[in-house]
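Deliverable D4.2, example record:
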Amino acid sequence: MGAVEMDFDYSDYFGKVPSTGYETLLYDAMIGDATLFQRADMVEAGWGMVQPILDVWKALPARSFPNYPAGTWGPVSRRAARARRPSLGELRGRDRRR
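Output generated by the structure prediction step:
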């Protein structure tokens, strides 16, 4: 086996700059190619699955959700639980003692 050249430049190979996803999407819309678009019945089916979940979340009151300010280390109860949890090294040491 010999060395293989692995340099690839899209514009050198194809003679143009690669298009962005938005350019491709807009071009397909203009020429009538609908393969990148969802049909209305598929969108409705998706919402048919998600909407019941949203309805339940809206109907039930939040129960002890551990909310905390952005940029903090999380709720105090979670930090306390983490502090009590043994480390992986401690767990491995317990296995060896048995």
